[in-house]
Structure formats: structure tokens, C-alpha cells
């Protein structure tokens, strides 16, 4: 378990380093799941769990510095526990959602304590025009950010896997059935959250096209995704064509207005 805890901690640090500190890459559960699966020796299960958690957190995204849920830590802990404990997707979802919410407190604590201290020191460096010190402070903040998460991941995996595994195995059948139902309902909620943010009168027909394909034509997810991709390409192409046409119309209107104003100026000059 020590080796697995170290591997997950290293993976956690790198994920946080690249997602929120360096390069600002969006490390979604769809990517994190396979990474953790590869680290723990079960790449296939990592892909399956990552895709399931992506559906759960599909409508969760940060706006500025506000994060409703830490999807990174939720995906890391959920995938790790499911793989190491030999459980299925329902246990991954059961861990990912509360861990994602609790991890926000860690994120806010880092912002309040560490970032505020760094900002104060950086301001003094700027006042003294000390560019080297400012650069070193910035790099220190970047490299430090993932360390608390790595430590938390190490402790959680090192200490918590075996007790949690025993707890999951000893749960009554009713509780396991509830977790199974919840793991199927939460992706629907994730899609609902995403749909709420994207709901637009021009997109409503596409939603019902997908519903029709699933309900009446019995297409699976891959088939609907292919149809959706084709529709998205057509929608994008038509949108670009519409934009180009609007630009041409604006240019024509501008040229017409210019010629009319020029004619008026000539008339005014003649009478003056």
C-alpha cells in the first residue's frame, strides 16, 4: 500500500501542478481517471471510472477563483479507492462527490493563508523593483500549490483504503442498492447542470433529437455521440457562414452610408 500511496501522491501533485498552477490545463475526471488507473496498474478500470465521474461533474466548472467542487481531488480519490478496494463505479461516485466538496476547504485555506502571504511579499518585491525576487516568489507559489493535495492523497490512500474497503463490504444490501441507484442518478444531474448553462432556444431541437434517438431508435451512447458530432459540425459551419454573411452586409451598408454622406457633403458645398 505504501508504493500505491506514493504513486497516487505523485500523480496528485502533477495533476494539481498542471491544472491550477502551471499551464492552466483543465484536468477533467475523463483524463484523471486513466492517469490514476495507469499508475495503479488498471488502466481499463481507470477509463471506465473516469468517464463515469466526468458525467457526474459535467456541469461543474470554476468561474474565476470560485470553485463549486474540486473535481480533481474527487476523481483522484474516487478512482483510487475503487481500484485499490476492488469495487465498481458506484463506490467511486460515492467517494468522489463528498471528497470534491470537502477539498474546496483545502483550496480556500491555501488561498487565504499561503496566497495572501505570497502576495504581500510579492508586493514588497515590486515596490523595490526586485524582479528576480518576484520571479522566485512566483515560482515558489507554483511549485508549492500541489504539495498539500499530494500529502492529503498519500494519507488518505495509506490509511483509509483498508478500513473503507471493509466498511463497504459490510454495508447492508439496501445501502449498496441505494449507492448503485445514486451512481446512476448523479450523471443525469451532471447532464442537467450542463444543460441548464447551455439551454438556448436554438439548441432545444438538438436535445430532443438526442432523446428521440435514445428512446425510439435505441441508439447507444456512441451512436448518439456520432450523430451529435455531425450536427455540431453542421451547426458550427452554418454559424460561421452566417457570421461571414453578416460581415459582408455590414461592409456593404458602411460603403452605402459613406457614399450617401459624400453626396450630401457635395450638395452642401455647392449651396454654400
What gross morphology would you assign? flat
Would you list the SSEs in sequence order as H and E? Answer: HHHHHHHHHH
Strand content: under 5%
> What radius of gyration results from the CA coordinates?
27 Å
Low-confidence stretches: none
Calculate the terminal CA-CA distance, rounded to whole Å. 94 Å
Helix content: over 70%
| Multimerization state | single chain
| Average pLDDT | 79
Q: Main β-sheet: number of strands, strand sense, barrel status?
A: none
Helix and strand content put the structural class at mainly alpha
Query: How many H/I helices?
Result: 10
- The count of strands amounts to 0
Account of the 3D structure:
With 272 residues, the protein is mostly helical. It is 83% helix and 0% strand. It has ten helices and no strands. It has helices spanning 2-21, 29-39, 43-56, 71-84, 89-127, 131-144, 147-170, 173-198, 204-215, 221-271. The mean pLDDT is 79.
In short:
This protein is an all-alpha fold and 272 residues long. The chain is 83% helix and 0% strand.
Amino acid at each position: 500500500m505504501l508504493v500505491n500511496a506514493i504513486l497516487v501522491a505523485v500523480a496528485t501533485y502533477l495533476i494539481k501542478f498542471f491544472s491550477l498552477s502551471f499551464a492552466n490545463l483543465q484536468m477533467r475526471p475523463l483524463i484523471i481517471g486513466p492517469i490514476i488507473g495507469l499508475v495503479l496498474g488498471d488502466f481499463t478500470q481507470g477509463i471506465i471510472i473516469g468517464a463515469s465521474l466526468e458525467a457526474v461533474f459535467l456541469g461543474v466548472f470554476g468561474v474565476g477563483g470560485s470553485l463549486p467542487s474540486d473535481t480533481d481531488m474527487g476523481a483522484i480519490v474516487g478512482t483510487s479507492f475503487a481500484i485499490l478496494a476492488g469495487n465498481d463505479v458506484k463506490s467511486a461516485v460515492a467517494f468522489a462527490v463528498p471528497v470534491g466538496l470537502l477539498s474546496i476547504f483545502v483550496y480556500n485555506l491555501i488561498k487565504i493563508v499561503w496566497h495572501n502571504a505570497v502576495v504581500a511579499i510579492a508586493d514588497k518585491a515590486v515596490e523595490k523593483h526586485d524582479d528576480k525576487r518576484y520571479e522566485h516568489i512566483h515560482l515558489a507559489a507554483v511549485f508549492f500549490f500541489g504539495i498539500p493535495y499530494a500529502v492529503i492523497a498519500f494519507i488518505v490512500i495509506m490509511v483509509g483504503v483498508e478500513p473503507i474497503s471493509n466498511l463497504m463490504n459490510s454495508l447492508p444490501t439496501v445501502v449498496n442498492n441505494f449507492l448503485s441507484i445514486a451512481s446512476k442518478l448523479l450523471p443525469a444531474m451532471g447532464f442537467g447542470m450542463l444543460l441548464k448553462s447551455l439551454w438556448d432556444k436554438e439548441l432545444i431541437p438538438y436535445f430532443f433529437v438526442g432523446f428521440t434517438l435514445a428512446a425510439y431508435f435505441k441508439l447507444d451512447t456512441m451512436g448518439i455521440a456520432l450523430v451529435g458530432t455531425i450536427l455540431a459540425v453542421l451547426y458550427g459551419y452554418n454559424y460561421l457562414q452566417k457570421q461571414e454573411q453578416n460581415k459582408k452586409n455590414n461592409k456593404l451598408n458602411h460603403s452605402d452610408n459613406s457614399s450617401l454622406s459624400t453626396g450630401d457633403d457635395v450638395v452642401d458645398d455647392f449651396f454654400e
